[in-house]
């Protein structure tokens, strides 16, 4: 039986390949520029982390990427070594199920859904997290190809275990990013279901131009320091 050729399907496939190539090119260029621009941050953060607490400068952790494939994410270490993650694990379980209680952010007056007063976080770590500078090493992940400049935040495997079936779309359909649609529009002021809907919406709208818009909005989101999930 002869296959029926649909021109619109072929055009859509070509457009998707072009957009994927543009996105990857932007990721490579952006990560190289980012590593160059933030090279002083690498130096000063490394010195501060070493003087502040024992342990390595970098924190590596298994995360879930596109298609459910796991990879090692790089961050500046913001916590003490050999810490107990049970409290965070329980919080994320409740957060994903919509049972976590929010606290009021003193600066914005909005509800924030995150683990506060985490005893594992060092004094320098609090500053790095508040400014999101702890995520600068993720430019390495972008250059390696397991992350993108823009995309959903990569979850920890034990978080994915708590997902409802429809939540999985946020990790199956898009490469995770350093920044993203939800991060610049909401940061930590929405619940998990709303965050997931925004991530899925990004997947439907993603393009090189849309990514550029998100990147340009990111400095403002960092400046307002609303707090990150």
Topology, please?
Blueprint: H1 7-37, H2 39-52, E1 58-64, E2 70-76, H3 86-96, E3 103-104, E4 111-112, H4 123-130, H5 138-144, E5 148-150, H6 157-160, H7 169-172, E6 177-179, H8 181-185, H9 192-205, H10 208-224
Helix pairs in contact: 1-5, 2-4
Give a structural overview.
By secondary structure, the chain is mostly helical. The chain has one domain (18-224). It has ten helices and six strands; from the N terminus they run ααββαββααβααβααα. It has helices spanning 7-37, 39-52, 86-96, 123-130, 138-144, 157-160, 169-172, 181-185, 192-205, 208-224; strands at residues 58-64, 70-76, 103-104, 111-112, 148-150, 177-179. The strands form three sheets. A two-stranded antiparallel sheet has the order 1-2. Strands 3-4 form a two-stranded antiparallel sheet.
Q: Please count the helical segments.
A: 10
Helix residue percentage: 40-55%
Which descriptor suits the 3D outline? globular
Share in β-strands: 5-15%
Assembly state (oligomeric): single chain
What's the order of the H and E elements? HHEEHEEHHEHHEHHH
Low-confidence stretches: none
Taking strands numbered 1, 2, ... along the chain, how are they ordered across the largest sheet?
A: 1-2
Biggest sheet features: 2 strands, antiparallel
Overall mean pLDDT: 85
- Spatial separation of the terminal alpha carbons: 53 Å
- SS-derived structural category: mainly alpha
Radius of gyration, CA atoms, in whole angstroms: 19 Å
Tell me how many strands there are.
Answer: 6
How many distinct folded domains?
1
């Amino acid at each position: 039986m002869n296959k029926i050729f649909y021109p619109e399907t072929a055009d859509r496939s070509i457009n998707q390949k072009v957009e994927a190539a543009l996105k990857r090119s932007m990721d490579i260029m952006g990560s190289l520029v980012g590593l160059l621009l933030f090279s002083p941050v690498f130096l000063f953060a490394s010195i501060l982390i070493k003087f502040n607490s024992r342990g390595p400068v970098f924190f590596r952790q298994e995360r879930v990427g596109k298609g459910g494939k796991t990879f090692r994410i790089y961050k500046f270490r913001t916590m003490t070594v050999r810490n107990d993650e049970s409290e965070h694990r329980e919080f994320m379980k409740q957060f994903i199920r919509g049972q976590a209680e929010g606290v009021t952010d003193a600066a914005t007056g909005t509800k924030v859904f995150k683990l506060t007063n985490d005893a594992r976080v060092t004094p320098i770590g609090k500053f790095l997290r508040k400014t999101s500078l702890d995520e600068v090493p993720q430019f390495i992940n972008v250059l390696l190809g397991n992350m993108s400049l823009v995309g959903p935040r990569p979850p920890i495997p034990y978080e994915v275990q708590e997902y409802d079936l429809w939540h999985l779309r946020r990790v199956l359909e898009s490469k995770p990013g350093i920044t993203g649609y939800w991060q610049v529009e909401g940061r930590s002021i929405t619940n998990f279901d709303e965050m997931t809907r925004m991530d899925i919406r990004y997947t439907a709208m993603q393009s090189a131009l849309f990514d550029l818009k998100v990147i340009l909005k990111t400095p403002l989101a960092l400046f307002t320091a609303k707090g990150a999930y």
